[in-house]
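Lecture 7 notes: from sequence to structure.

We start with a single chain of 229 residues. Read the sequence below before looking at the structure.
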Amino acid sequence: MSFESVKAIIDDHAYDSLIGLQEDAWFEAKSGAAYNLNTPEGRYELAKDVAAFANGTGGILIVGLRTTRQANTQTDEITAYDLCPQDTFNVNQYASLIEEYIHPEIEGLALCWMPINPEGTHGLGIIEVPPQNPDRQYFLIANAIDGGSRIKQFVFGIVRRNESSNDHFTITQLYQYTQKGKSSLAQSLTRIEDKLDAVLTQGRHIDVPDPEQIYAARAARILDEEEGS
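Now the structure, written as C-alpha cells:
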C-alpha cells in the first residue's frame, strides 16, 4: 500500500475496496466515534494522529471503519464499516482544530465527509495529509494538556532569563529554533568542519622521512658515482 493507492480508492469512490486492507505507514482507520472533539482526549488524539503522518511520509486517515487485530501480522485489518453521521465529522471543526493544534500549518491538508449508506445520512470522514517538505519538519503539537484531564501528556519547552523575568518560547519560536539546525548555512558549516577534520586527521598520519636516512641515501649515491668515475 502507498499514499497514492489509498487515495486512488477514495478518488474512485470504491470504498468497498477498503474492506480487507491493513493499516500501514500511509493508512490508518478509525471507528465512527473515535474522536470526540468536545473532550481534551479527543482533540489531542486527532492532533497526534495527523501530526504523525505529517512528520512521516504523509498518509490518509479515515474515520468510520471497524478494524480487527490480526494475530499473524500484528496489524489492524479493516473488517467492516462503522459509519459516522455528518454532524459528528464537521469538516470545518476538524480543520480548525488541526490548524490550532499543529504548528506549522500542514501544506495541502484536505478533509471531506463522504456519504456511504443509501439514505446519505452516514459516511466516512477522510483526512488526507500529503507528504510534506522535509525542510518544514518537524510538526509540533500545541495545547496537548487540558487541566484536570487524564490524557497521555508530554510536556517540553524552553525558558530563558530576560533581564529580571523568565520568558518562555512560544511554539512558533520553538519551531524556528528546531529549524536552525537544518538550514543550508548550518549544513554547509557542518560539511566544512567534516572536511577540516579529515584534513587534520590525514595530516597526523603523514610519514615524515628520517633525516639520517636521507643523508645516508645521498652519501651512498655519491660513493657510487665516485667509484663509477
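The helical segments are 3-11, 40-54, 91-101, 171-180, 184-204, 211-228. Keep this in mind for problem set 3.
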